Amino acid sequence: MKQRALNLATEAAEENRGQKTTKSTSHFEAGDLLKGVIDPSQIAAELKALAATSASGDCADIRPQVLSLLKSAVSDGRERIREMFFANGAGVLCANRLAKLQDVIIEAIHDFALAEVFKASNLSSGEQMAILAVGGYGRGTLAPGSDIDLLFLLPYKQTALGEQVAEYLLYLLWDMGFKVGHASRSIDECVKLAREDFTIRTSILERWLIAGSRKLSDELDARFEAEVVAGSSNEFIAAKLAERDARHAKAGNTRYLVEPNVKEGKGGLRDLHTLFWIAKYHYRADTVDELVKAGVLSRREQRLFAKAEDFLWAVRCHMHFEAGKAEERLSFDLQPVIAERLGYNTHPGLRGVERFMKHYFLITKDVGDLTRILCAALEEEQAKEAPGLRGFVRSLRNRAKSIPGTIDFHIDNNRINVSNKDVFKTDPVNLIRIFRLAAINDLEYHPDALKLIRRSLRLIDTDLCENAEANSLFLDVLTDRKAPEMHLRRMNEAGVLGRFVPEFGKIVAMMQFNMYHHYTVDEHLLRSIDELSAIEQGERETVLPLSSEIVTTLRDRRVLYVALFLHDIAKGRPEDHSTAGARIARRLCPRFGLDERETELVAWLVEDHLIMSDTAQRRDLSDRKTILDFSERVRTLERLKLLTVLTVCDIRAVGPGVWNGWKGQLLRTLYLETEPTLSGGFTQTSREERLVRARARLEDRLADWSEAEREAYIDLHYPNYLLTVSVEEQVRHAAFITKAREKDEPLSTQVSTDPFRQVTEIMVLAPDHPRLLSMIAGACAGTGANIVDAQIFTMADGRALDVMLVSREFENDEDELRRADRICDNIRKLLTGRTMTANLIAQRRPPRGVALFEIKPRITVDNSLSNRVTVIEVQGLDRTGLLSDITGALSDLNLDIRSAHIATYGEKIVDAFYVTDLIGMKITSEARIARIEARLKRVFDNPEGEVSSPAVLPSESAFGIPRR
C-alpha cells in the first residue's frame, strides 16, 4: 500500500509539474484536477439564479444564501478531495486540488460581484483589477488549513469600485472561515516594494492570475522580471540562504527532532520551497524538469525532489485533515495516526510509527542533499561569471592548494575537494581518507566532493569495511581532538558512515516513540561525541567541573570515544539494546584496531552504560549498601572515570532540558562516594563510632549555642539523620527549626534556590502524619512543579522535617521564589484542611501527549538494596498527581517513607521509596509484599478512584494545625 501510494504520488507530482506553464498567470490547467470535486459552471449558474431572486437588485438581501451556497460548495469539494487523497496518498495532487478549488471559489465571487452586485460590465482602464495568488498559494499548492495570500493588482491607485469588489470578496472569504492575507498595490508599488523587501519579492515571485485583467498581470510579469529579478540573483540567493539558516538555528539546527515541524523545520517543505525559489529566480526555471535540462540536477535528483515533495505534502495534508486546522508540528499524537494511514506496520524491534518517522527523517536528509547540490552548481557558476580584476583576484585566492601527502585531494576555498572524478574508484579507501584529511587540516567539504562521495557509495563493500587502513583512518576521525562530531556528521550525511559501519546504518534516522528522547538515535550518538569533545577542549569546566577534571587523567580516551559511538547502536532490536550493543562492540572493536583489553572495556561500558545514571537518580546515595553494590559493578577506578564521563555525555545529548545541575550533583556524589572505596581509601568504621563523630561535628558547628540547647536539639534527631545528612545541611536545618520554634509555628516552610543544581528547595516542618509527604506532593502537583528528590526526617518530638527538591522553572530568582511561595501556600491549605489535593490537581492540565503511550505498571519490592530498609520501586505512565497518590497509598499500607527518589523519563516515571514498617523494620512478609504490589498497581489501574487527601473536620486539620 505504501509503495503504491508513493508511486502514484510521484507520477501525479510529475504530471502536475508537466502541466505547469512557464507563465505565472496559470500554474496548471483545470483538467482532471476539478473532476469530481467541483463544477465551476454550475457554481456560476447557481449564483446567477440566486441574483434573479433578489428584491433589492444589488443582491444585498440574498448575501446569506450566497454565503451558504459557497460554504456548501467548499465543504463538499474539500470532502471529495479528502476522499481522493485517502485513496491514492498523492500529497502534491491533494495540495493542487485544494488550490484549484480555491481558485474556482474566488473567481466565482469576483465575477458575481462585478456582474450582479455592482453591475459593472464595462470597466474603464482605471477600474481594471487583477486578483493574483501569491506566496504559498502562488505555488499552486494549499494544505487543508493553509492561509490564502492574495494580491489585488491595480493599474494606478485604488478606485471605489475596486475597493468595493475587494471588500465584498474578502468578507465572504472570512465568513467562510478562511484566513486571508491580502494587499492592494499598483504595479509601481509592487516593483518598488519588491526591490526593498525580500519577503515581498519572494511572495510575488510565485504568482498567477485567478481573476480579472490579464493585461495587468502580464505587465507585472514583464516589469518584475526586468526591474527586480534581472541582475539581482546573488543578493536574492544570499538573502534566502541566510533566512534559511536563521530558521534552522531557531529550530535547534537539526532535522532530527522527534516532533519535527514539517513546514519550517530543517529538511521540511520550506527548505524545498527555498530550493525552488532560488532555482526559479536564478535559472528562470518554472519546473524541476527545466533544472535537469540546465544541467543543475540529474534525472535521479529530479525524482528525489519529486518523491520528497510529495511525501512531505502527504504528511502535511494528513496532519491538517486530522487536526482540523493548520498544524505544522508532527506531534506524538499525530504520528501513529499518519503512520497507520500511510501503511507502516510494526516489525520486530520497531513499531509502525517508528518506521514511519525513520522514513520521514531520511526524506529530510534527501532535501539537505538537494540543497547542497544546487548550492554547488550556483557557486561554480558564480566563479565562472566573476568579471574583470575582481574575478581574477578571486580565482587566485581560491586557486587549488595541495594537501601534503596526497595528490587525490586539494584545498578549494578552505574546503577539501577531489582532484579528479576517479579518486574513489581508483582507491576506495579514499572514501574514508577524505574525512581524515579534512579533520587533520581543519577543512570543510566542497559540495562537488560530497556529490561524488554519494555517487560512489556502492564502492563501500566488505573488503573496504575490513580494510585495516580504512579502519585506522576511521578511528582517527572518531577520536579527532578538534571536531570529531562535525566530520562524523558529514560522513553520516554523505551516507558513508552507515555503509562503512552497517550496524550504525540500521539506526540512522531511527526515532524512539517516547517523550524522553528528543533526537533520532544517530543524532544522539553524534551529539554525545560532541559533548565529550567539548569537555576535552575545556569548554565545559564551569558546568561540568568533575568530568572536565577526569578527562585530563584518562589513559583510554579512544576507548571512551568508541564506547560513546556504540552505546546505543543496538536500539530498535527486539532484545535489550545494552546487551546486544556489547555483543556488537566485541565484533567491531577489533576491526577498528582496538586490542583485547580495550575491546572488553568498551563492551563493558556499552553493556553497563545506564548503571551509573540509574543508581544516581533512583537510589539513596547516603545508604552505604548503594555505594558498595555500585562499586562491585564498577570494580576499578579507571572504569569509574570512563563511566562517569560517558554517563554525563549520554544524558546531555538526550535533548534540551534533560540535563540539569541536580543530575550533575547526583553523579558527582556517587563518584565521590565510590572513588575511595575503589582506591582503597575506605576503612570500615562501626556505626556507633560514626554516630559519635557526627554528633561531635554538629556540636562544634553549633558552638555559639548553650550546651543545654545543643544537647536538646541534637537529641531531637534520630541517628539516621546525623549519619546521612551533611553537617552544612544540618546547620541550615537547625536555623530553620529554631526560627519556627521562636515563632511558635506548628507548620513552617522555607524556600531557597540553587541555580547551579537548577533546583528549588522547599523545607516543611510540621506535625508528623502518615500522609504528610502525599500532601506535599499534591501541593507541588497543583502548581505543576516536578519533584526530583525528597528526604523525610522524623524527629523525636513528633514532628517531621521534609525536604523537597523541585526542578527550577524560571531563570529569574524572583519568579522562581514566587512559584515556590505558591507551593507553600498550597501546602498550608492542604494541611489545614482548606482544600483537597484533588481540587488542586483538577486545575492542572494533564501532561501533553502522555495519554498516547502505554506503559505497563511495574512494582518491585526489594530487600537486597539496603541493609536497613526495604526499597519499593514503582514504574509506570506519568500523570498529574501520581506521586501524591503513590505516597498516599504507601501511607494507607502503614509504611514509613524514609526517603523518596523521583525520576521522570518523558512519559515514564521510575520512583524509588526507601520504607520500613511503623516500628522501623524491613518488610519481609510475602503476603504483605503481595498486598503492597496489588495496592500500588491499583494507583495506575484506577487513578480516578484514588483518594489524594484524607477527610478533615471543618474546624481542624488532620495534622493538628489550626486553620487560619
UniProtKB/TrEMBL annotation:
Keywords: Hydrolase, Magnesium, Multifunctional enzyme, Nucleotidyltransferase, Repeat, Transferase. It catalyses: [protein-PII]-uridylyl-L-tyrosine + H2O = [protein-PII]-L-tyrosine + UMP + H(+); [protein-PII]-L-tyrosine + UTP = [protein-PII]-uridylyl-L-tyrosine + diphosphate. The keyword Transferase applies. Its cofactor is Mg(2+). Its EC number is 2.7.7.59, 3.1.4.-. Residues 761-843, 871-955 form the ACT domain. Residues 521-637 form the HD domain. It holds the Pfam family GlnD_UR_UTase. Belongs to the GlnD family. This is Bifunctional uridylyltransferase/uridylyl-removing enzyme. It comes from Fulvimarina manganoxydans. The gene is glnD.
